[in-house]
Amino acid sequence: IEDQQEWMALQGPHSSGLLAFLAANRADYDGFVLFTYLYATSYDTLEHVRGKFYLVPFAHDEPPIYLRLFEDVFRAARGIVFCTEEERNFVQQRFPFALPRGEVLGMGVDLPAGADGERFRSRFDMREPFMLYAGRIAESKSCRDLFGCYSAYRAHAGSSDQTLSLALCGSAQMRVPRLRGIRYLGVISEQEKWDAMAAARFLVLPSRFESLSIVLLEAWATGTPALVNGTCLVSVGQCRRSQAGLWYRNADEFSLVADWLARDDGLCRRLGANGLDFVRSSYQWPKIVERYMEFIRFEALAIV
């Protein structure tokens, strides 16, 4: 456990000001909410908020969650708030001894004020149809697998007016291969990201580890469908609930589904419309705030 505590010390971030405030003012609060299980800002506060905190863990099946030191974090929580049913199911399996009341409340996403696909195409000279990856370009996000899948798709689809390029935006933490059809746009502005989503045929989300993908909700907020990694239960669950995305489990399936989405205008329109309806009905901030307030009122009665 000492090695794990050393890992947490290196993980950070640490806030001496936060700890000092909690030590001085703990008695003034009936409860605290800790966001994410993974970082020291939650772990370091345990001695001050034990028995009085609610955890929003953003948990998924990744190596750190199997460290023993996190068992104390989940055991000590008065309650746990989840983003998806899949996250709750995973935490129940990982920490069956510790789970108190757990509610799926989700997280809000802002609807874009004016996403303009044509503005994006003009700004970046992207006249060809394309699939979009938005976010950190990293091994941990399964981007190497994405490049392999895209290469297989190009070999499958050949060259035609309907063959999709792969546009990527975000910070590159690994080398982006120079393959035919791949366009790396670098880090772009928030408005340019919304415009890119509006212009894309679909968003591709190759990550195998998600507790809730904000970028997936953002794509749906622009009426753009998604193609997600079928080994990520959270992403697949979101696609099932929304009826706004499809999934793949290997390069062959990626090639077939991407080609289908490239060629079927009606399917893309239906999936995109479903995604927009899903975000509007379930993930706008007023609805999320209402769920949190109801949860807090219920917990306040339980404390009394």
Question: In words, what does this structure look like?
Answer:
The chain is 48% helix and 14% strand. The protein has 304 residues and is α/β, with parallel strands linked by helices. The chain folds into two domains: 2-108 and 285-303, no CATH class; 117-282, 3-Layer(aba) Sandwich (Rossmann fold). The strands form two sheets. A six-stranded parallel beta sheet has the order 7-6-5-8-9-10, with helices on both faces. Strands 1-2-3-4 form a four-stranded parallel beta sheet. Strand 8 (202-205), helix 10 and strand 9 (226-229) form a beta-alpha-beta unit. The two termini are 36 Å apart.
Task: Give a nutshell description of this structure.
The protein has 2 domains: 2-108 and 285-303, no CATH class; 117-282, Rossmann fold (3-Layer(aba) Sandwich), CATH 3.40.50.2000. The chain is 48% helix and 14% strand.
Count the helices. How many? Answer: 14
* Main β-sheet, spatial strand arrangement: 7-6-5-8-9-10
End-to-end Cα distance: 36 Å
- Classified in CATH, the superfamily of the largest domain is Glycogen Phosphorylase B
| Estimated structural class | alpha/beta
Tertiary shape: elongated
Order of helices and strands: HHEHHEHEHEHEHEEHEHEHEHHH
Helical content, roughly? Answer: 40-55%
What is the strand content? 5-15%
Low-confidence spans: pLDDT under 50, at least 5 residues? none
**Text of the CATH class of the largest domain:** Alpha Beta
Q: Which radius of gyration do the C-alpha atoms yield?
A: 21 Å
The fold-level CATH name of the largest domain is: Rossmann fold
Q: Can you give the mean pLDDT?
A: 94
